[in-house]
Amino acid sequence: MKASARPARLRYSLPHLFRIALASLLCLVFIPRVNGQASQPDLVLEGKVAGNQNKTYVEVPFEVPAKVHRISVDFTYTGKDQKTALDLGIADPERFRGASGGNKTHFTLSETDATPSYLPGAMPKGRWKLLISVPNIRPTEQSSYRAEIRFNSPLEEHGFALAPLATGMRWYRGDLHMHTAHSDGSCASQSGKNVPCPVFVTAQSAVSRGLDFIAITDHNTDSQYEAMRELQPYFDHLLLVPGREITTFWGHFNIFGVTEYVDYRAVIQGGLDVNGILRDVRQKGGIASINHADSPGGEICMGCAWEPPTAVDMSLFTGVEVINGGRILLSSADFWDRQLSKGSKLTAIGGSDNHNGPSAAGGVGAIGWPTTVVEATELSVPAILDGIRHGRVFIDLTASHDRQIDIEARDTKTQATARMGETMQAAAGDPVAFQIHVAACPRSTVHLFLDGGERSALPPLATTFGDEALAFQWTSDGQPHWLRAEVRDSNGSLALVSNPIYIQPITR
C-alpha cells in the first residue's frame, strides 16, 4: 500500500539523470558527483511524513541504472525525541529484498552479500522502492527523512567494516589463506563428527590466536562473504579481508579486496586466460598472490603446482605465498627467488591454508601458522593491502605475538635510504650501511641472502637479547641486487622471513 503522503524529493547525480522518469509527486534536485569521494551519494531521497500517516506504509521509488552491482543506503529522520518511529525496507523491481525495521540506519546489498535483514542477489536495473513503515507518529508531528543512496560504494566493495578497527602505524598480524564450509574446510561438531566448518568458528579460532586480520579464501566461490558481512560487526577487533582462492587446473592464487564475482575458469584457448582473470581483479581494485607454487602437482594435488600452460604477466601479481601449510610448512622460496631474479618484485606472504578447524576438545587448528605480519597505517582492508603492495611484510613461522624483523639501508655517500620492500639507488663503489632490526628473538642467528643465496662476504649475525639492531656494511658493485634476511632460533629452526631491500644501479 502506498500512502498519499507529502511528496518526497529525489536527488540524482548528473550521470544518472537521463535514466530517470519519476512519478509526478517527486521533485528533482540535482547534486554533482565528485569523483573519488566515497561520501558523496549518487542520489538522495528526501521527504516528510505527517501525523495523519500514522500506521501506514510509504513507498519511495528510485531508479537504479545498469551495471550497478551494489546498493548502499544511509537513512536518517527527525522527531525521535517525540517518539516518531520510521522503519526501513527495500524492494527491487521484481521482489522484496528485506526489512530491518528500526534497528539499522545503514545497509548494503549486492550480488554476493548483504547486511543482515537483507537479501543478496541479482541487482536489476529499473524502479526500486525504499519501503518506509510508520509504526508511530503523533497527530501534530511531522518528520523529515533523508536516504542517501550509493551505487557500487568503494567502502563496501573491498571490505565489510565501515571504519578502521584500529588506527596508528604498526605491525598487524594475520593469516591470508584458510578454508571453511564454503569450500573444503571442516571441523569437529559438538558430538565430534567431522562436518563443514562454519565461518564463525574459523573467525573465533583466529581471535584465540590473537590475530588482527584474516582472509577466508574458499575455492572459486564468494558465498562466504554473506557470513563475513554479518560477522564483521561482532568481530570488531578482527578484520575480515575479502579473499578467494582462484583454483585453476594449472595453479592456485589468492585474490584479496574484491567482493564482486570473478570468473575463475581459465582455459588454454578460446576463452579467459590467467592474465584476463588477473586484469579483472586489478580493475576491481584487488590484489593477487600465487599460492604454494612449488607444491607437488598432478594427481597428488591436482592443480596445486604453479605450471600455467601459457605465459603469465607476473607484473599483475602483487605477492607470492612463500610459506604455506600450518605446522608442516611448505616453502616456495626458490620460486620466489626465481621471480625476483627476473625483475618481478613480488611481496612474500604466508598462509596456513587451514582446512581443519578447531576440534571438539578445543584445539584451534593451524590458523596463524605461519603469520603474515604487515606494517599498515590502520587496521582496514585498504591499509593492509597497501602494506602488502609496498613490501612492508615479514612472515612469522612461529605464530608468535611479538617477534619482528625489519631492514634499513643507507648509502653513506649519498645518504639515500630504503626500508624493507623499498628500492635504493647506489653507484659502483658506494658503501651501503645496513641494519637488521629484530625483536623477541634472543639467542638467534640472522642469515643474509643476496640475490637468493648466502654469501661468504655476508656471514650470519648473532642476536643476544633479541631486541636489537644488527649492523653490517656492503659495497655496491653497480649491479642490481636484492637483499633479504631469515632468522633462525637457537635450535636452527626457521622463525622469520623478511622481504627484500632492492638495490638499483646508478652511474655518475
The CATH topology assignment of the largest domain is: TIM Barrel
The fraction of residues in strands falls at 35-45%
The N- to C-terminal Cα distance equals 79 Å
The radius of gyration computed from the alpha-carbon positions, rounded to a whole number of angstroms, is 27 Å
Give me the count of strands: 32
Query: What is the domain tally?
Result: 3
3D structure, described in words:
This protein folds into 3 domains: 9-155, Jelly Rolls (Sandwich); 158-401, Alpha-Beta Barrel (TIM Barrel); 408-506, Immunoglobulin-like (Sandwich), CATH 2.60.40. 10% of the residues lie in helices and 38% in strands. The radius of gyration is 27 Å and the shape is elongated. It has 508 residues and is mainly beta. It has a 16-stranded mixed β-sheet that branches. A 6-stranded mixed β-sheet has the order 2-1-3-10-5-8, with no helix packed on it. The N and C termini lie far apart (79 Å).
Give descriptors for this structure.
508 residues, mainly beta, Jelly Rolls, TIM Barrel, Immunoglobulin-like, 3 domains, 16-stranded mixed beta sheet, 6-stranded mixed beta sheet, 10% helix, disordered N terminus
SSE map:
Layout: E1 9-12, E2 27-28, E3 43-50, E4 57-64, E5 70-77, E6 85-91, E7 96-101, E8 106-110, E9 126-136, E10 142-151, H1 154-157, E11 167-175, E12 186-188, E13 194-196, H2 199-208, E14 213-216, H3 224-231, E15 239-248, E16 251-256, H4 274-283, E17 287-290, E18 319-324, E19 330-331, H5 333-341, E20 347-351, E21 371-378, H6 381-389, E22 393-396, E23 404-411, E24 417-419, E25 423-427, E26 431-439, E27 445-450, E28 461-462, E29 468-475, E30 481-488, E31 494-498, E32 501-506
Parallel strand pairs: 1-2, 11-14, 14-15, 17-18, 18-20, 25-32
Antiparallel strand pairs: 1-3, 3-10, 4-9, 5-8, 5-10, 6-7, 6-9, 11-21, 12-13, 15-16, 16-17, 18-19, 21-22, 22-31, 23-24, 23-26, 26-29, 27-28, 27-30, 30-31, 30-32
